[in-house]
């Protein structure tokens, strides 16, 4: 399930993609109905992960670190919530056996979770902020 924090992060990133210029946390918060303090924490995480750049001064604020066509939904979600997998045993980046796992090799759940992760990752990695702003989502087979 998508966390509230990730949902807010996506809305903030899409706001910056639409704007094409710097925006303050207050402007983003007001436009996207995100509590400002919560948004500041999110923007800090996005900045640390290299997805936004903070600028100081009178024309300061936040801007995307790259062209919106080069930033995927997957990058934003991973920056906020970590791996896309539903369970640690299905993660490519942070694999570990589930705490109650008897045998990773014999698990009947893991192959399904890996398939879900692959399908989810394909959609999220294949969708850029620019595509979402333009409402031109890529076609994916079901």
From TrEMBL:
A single GO molecular function term of this UniProt record: DNA binding
Keyword Thylakoid in annotation: no
Domain of life: Bacteria
A GO CC term assigned to this protein in UniProt: cytosol
Keywords: DNA-binding
UniProt cross-references to Pfam families, sorted A to Z: Rrf2 (PF02082)
PANTHER family: HTH-TYPE TRANSCRIPTIONAL REGULATOR ISCR, WINGED HELIX-TURN-HELIX TRANSCRIPTIONAL REGULATOR, RRF2 FAMILY
Protein name: Transcriptional regulator, BadM/Rrf2 family
Species of origin: Paracoccus solventivorans
Lineage per the UniProt record: Bacteria, Pseudomonadati, Pseudomonadota, Alphaproteobacteria, Rhodobacterales
């Amino acid at each position: 399930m998508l966390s509230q924090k990730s949902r807010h992060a996506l809305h903030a990133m899409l706001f910056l993609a639409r704007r094409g210029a710097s925006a303050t946390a207050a402007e983003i918060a007001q436009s996207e109905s995100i509590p400002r303090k919560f948004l500041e924490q999110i923007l800090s995480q996005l900045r640390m992960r290299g997805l936004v750049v903070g600028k100081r001064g009178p024309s300061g604020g936040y801007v995307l670190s790259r062209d919106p066509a080069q930033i995927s939904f997957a990058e934003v979600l991973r920056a906020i919530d970590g791996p896309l997998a539903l369970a640690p045993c299905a993660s490519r980046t942070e694999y570990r056996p589930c705490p109650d796992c008897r045998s990773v090799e014999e698990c009947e759940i893991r192959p399904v979770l890996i398939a879900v992760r692959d399908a989810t990752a394909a959609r999220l990695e294949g969708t850029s902020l620019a595509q979402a702003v333009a409402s031109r989502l890529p076609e994916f087979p079901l």
